Amino acid sequence: MKFVTSNLVVAGFIALIFIFYGLVALRRKxxxxxxxxxxxxxxxxxxxxxxGKITGNDFxxxxxxxxxxxxxxxxxxxxxxxxxxxxTYLLKTSFFENYPDWKHVKVLxxxxxxxxxxxxxxxxxxxxxxxxxEILLAWLxxxxxDFMEVYQTLKKNRIKEITLSEASVTTTFKGIVxxxxxxxxPLNALRRLSH
Length: 195
Known about the structure:
Structural class: alpha+beta
Oligomer: single chain
Distance between the termini: 71 Å
Largest sheet: 9 strands, antiparallel
Number of helices: 4
Helix content: 25-40%
Strand order of the largest sheet: 1-2-3-4-9-8-5-6-7
């Protein structure tokens, strides 16, 4: 009888943990649904325990998990579509402070390293060539943007870098961002850069 009672207590305790986690997941999804409405987007459910994604006309907000076990953390990625973006660039926020500050921008390329008797090629962010600088300046110059205003918006929201790829302008926040006011500034700044 004692054995059965102790097993029921353990099973009940484990069930409470799952119920608590389920309630936390449901609350997170409810917050993301209301955030989607405020941003003018649609909430996409990604399953019972995955947070979900918000999509709009020209943006997406994806909440995803990085790491495993006790090192598991959430990240919120804000992506704005940028048709005809030239290539994959990594732009630090300081690039816009003294626009253009070439110390704070890199381009995705490949690098080769010699390893014993072979050469290994791998993707890596590299310094820009003069042609790549010209292409980036032409693409950024097509939109009438006040780059100091973009810099101040990014700095105010503690955004350290944005990624410009062939289809989007992206930035990532630590944790899950539910605050619409925290997202509106960066969303508008990325929209100004992408259009």
